[in-house]
Design goal:
219 residues, SH3 type barrels
Length: 219
Amino acid sequence: MIDVFTFRLLFLFFPGIICKLLVDSLVGRKKRLSSLDFFVFSYLYGLAAYLMVYFFTGLIQKDRGDWSGIVNLLLDNNAVSPRETLYASVVAVFLGFLMGYIINKGMLYKVAYRLNVSKRYGDGDVWSFVLNNNSEAMQFITLRDLKSDICYDGWVRAFSETSSDAELFLRDVSVFKNSTGERLYQVGGVYLARNRDDISIEFRAIDLSEDIKWEGGAI
């Protein structure tokens, strides 16, 4: 049987659970988090959602808001507020999208890089880091299938989570003979699944740095 305290705790954590599940769906975890990690993140997301509700409520009511509401949900038998939990659940959805955006864009790592604190790009591999970039220069690629002597020019529209699968879906694709540069055909879309050791990917739309000069056949 679930006692009153446990029910109240689950009720309080409901917005955090929503946010956590949404973030995991948007980010895509390569390994399942432990129960403790799930509990901690759900708690933090839920707390953030409630604090945002109380903050905006305070702005609307032009006062500080009732910041004791979270504590009362646990300690007071009559303090469980479905309305507050509903508001927090709605906020948790927007918070989940925001956190998914921040994580997928590696914004924390970009800030750390700018501050010269860290040179890490994130928890995924370079494949995910590069292809998650929405810049057009990064999304138009030349994929060389070294084993088959085929070259593909096209726009990245979908890709696998990690380079171990090396799956890509390209749109508006031009196919060439890699060794000769001869154009073979064009097609609207191509799905590719290759061993990552057999391919190379070029981003020819990225301009060279201004201080790179070609002199005497060497860079």
